[in-house]
Structure formats: C-alpha cells, structure tokens
C-alpha cells in the first residue's frame, strides 16, 4: 500500500533539473518529523515547510499496487507530447519510506524517468534515475553519492564543508526561507558569497516561488 499526500504536474523548481516539466508525487510521512506543530521543537528536522500528513491533497490517495500508483502518475503527464521523456519526482515527507524497486520498475515500463528528493537518511532502492539528497541537520547520511546534493543554507549543524567531499555530481546551496523574497535577502547574499568563494557549489533559488507556481 502506497500513501501519497498529493500529486500534480508542474516544473521542477530547484537544482540541476530546474525548469523541467515533472509530475511531483509527494509521499505521506517522514522519519525526521511527525508533521505536527506540537512535535516540531523536538523533531530531528525542525525547519520543514511542507504538509505531508494524510492523503487529502490534490490527487492524493492510497494505492494498493505499484501499477495503480504508476497509472495515476502517468495520467498526469501530458501524453500528447512525445518529444520529452516523462519525468516523475518523488518527494515527501521522506519518499524512501515507501518508494520501492517495484514502483520504480513499473514507472520505467510506463516510459518514465524516476527522480527522488530524499533527506538521505535511508538507503534507496535500485533503479532511481536521478537521486537528490538534501541533508537535514546532524542526521547521519545513509546516502553519500548520487546526482545532486542540495543543502538548505544555513544550517548550523550542517555546514557545506561537511559534504563537499561526498560523491555527488552537483552541489547546490539553497537559501532557507526564500518566501517572501524580501524577508531574507541576507541569507541569499550569504549563500551567493559562499558559492563565489567555493565554486564547487552552485546557488539554487526556488524557481517555483520566484515565478509563482507550485
Ligand atoms: S526531512 Fe524533509 S519532509 Fe522531513 S521534516 Fe525535514 S524538511 Fe520536512
């Protein structure tokens, strides 16, 4: 049984795939926070801005089989366009609590590339085409290589230097609390300065917030 909070068609807003048409599929639940405000202060991840509780979001629900969820996702892709490879991004919550090899293989059979955005604390199943790890605080990483490491910045207990030796193809700094934009230009400026001083890192601004799409 797979439980998803929501699923929708949009553009990827962050990182190396920013601007790419994508079906976003948000799994319910996370291993670093219950999602309830009453638990935030004692959570292992304390700055989350995502609602990942339940299955009541747009196109959310419970799916008994990998094929049922894959067909649900495939129906959100504009199939009149045959020129681009269908692309699904699994996020959460923590997607690796639920994503398994069977679902990945089923999506491949529907022609999809499969991307994952994970907090990196759980081992991924085989077959993922694009693996993005976003470390959260001092929570130990089970994933130390992949396609991109996207670090929300700043985090006092997760400085960029701690990750720069890991086996990722791309390293991104993403300023925390970008919305509303005018509220936190200092953080953007600090992230910009860090990337200029450390060219291994690139700046990732949340395009969906800048452009106003979800
Ligand atoms: S790991 Fe991600 S989904 Fe989980 S609480 Fe932190 S920011 Fe939210």
TrEMBL record:
Pathway membership, UniProt: Purine metabolism; 7-cyano-7-deazaguanine biosynthesis
Cofactor(s) this protein requires: [4Fe-4S] cluster; Mg(2+); S-adenosyl-L-methionine
Originating gene: queE
Free-text remark on how the cofactor is bound: Binds 1 [4Fe-4S] cluster. The cluster is coordinated with 3 cysteines and an exchangeable S-adenosyl-L-methionine. Binds 1 S-adenosyl-L-methionine per subunit.
E.C. code: 4.3.99.3
UniProt protein name: 7-carboxy-7-deazaguanine synthase
Annotated Radical SAM core domain residues: 17-214
MF GO annotations: lyase activity
Domain of life: Bacteria
Binding site for [4Fe-4S] cluster: 30, 45, 48
Residues involved in Mg(2+) binding: 50
Positions with a binding annotation for substrate: 11-13, 26, 91
Oligomeric and partner information: Homodimer.
Family: Belongs to the radical SAM superfamily. 7-carboxy-7-deazaguanine synthase family.
Role noted for this protein: Catalyzes the complex heterocyclic radical-mediated conversion of 6-carboxy-5,6,7,8-tetrahydropterin (CPH4) to 7-carboxy-7-deazaguanine (CDG), a step common to the biosynthetic pathways of all 7-deazapurine-containing compounds.
Catalysed reaction equations from the record: 6-carboxy-5,6,7,8-tetrahydropterin + H(+) = 7-carboxy-7-carbaguanine + NH4(+)
Residues binding S-adenosyl-L-methionine, per UniProt: 47-49, 93, 134-136, 174-177
Cited InterPro entries: 7-CO-7-deazaguanine_synth-like (IPR024924), Aldolase_TIM (IPR013785), QueE_Cx14CxxC (IPR030977), rSAM (IPR007197), rSAM_sf (IPR058240)
Matching Pfam families: Radical_SAM (PF04055)
UniProt entry keywords in alphabetical sequence: 4Fe-4S, Iron, Iron-sulfur, Lyase, Magnesium, Metal-binding, Queuosine biosynthesis, S-adenosyl-L-methionine
């Amino acid at each position: 049984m797979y439980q998803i909070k929501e699923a929708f068609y949009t553009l990827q807003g962050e990182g190396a795939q920013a601007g790419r048409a994508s079906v976003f599929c948000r799994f319910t639940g996370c291993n670093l926070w219950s999602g309830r405000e009453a638990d935030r202060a004692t959570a292992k991840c304390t700055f989350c801005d995502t609602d990942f509780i339940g299955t009541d979001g747009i196109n959310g629900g419970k799916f008994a089989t990998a094929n049922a969820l894959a067909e649900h996702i495939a129906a959100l892709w504009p199939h009149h366009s045959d020129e681009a490879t269908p692309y699904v991004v699994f996020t959460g919550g923590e997607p690796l609590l639920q994503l398994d090899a069977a679902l990945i293989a089923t999506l491949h059979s529907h022609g999809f590339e499969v991307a994952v955005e994970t907090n990196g604390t759980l081992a991924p199943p085989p077959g993922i085409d694009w693996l993005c790890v976003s470390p959260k605080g001092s929570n130990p990483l089970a994933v130390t290589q992949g396609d991109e490491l996207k670090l929300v910045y700043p985090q006092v207990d997760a400085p960029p230097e701690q990750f720069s030796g890991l086996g990722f193809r791309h390293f991104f700094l993403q300023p925390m609390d970008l919305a509303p934009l005018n509220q936190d230009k200092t953080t953007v400026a600090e992230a910009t300065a860090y990337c200029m001083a450390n060219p291994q890192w690139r700046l990732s601004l949340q395009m969906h917030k800048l452009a106003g799409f979800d």
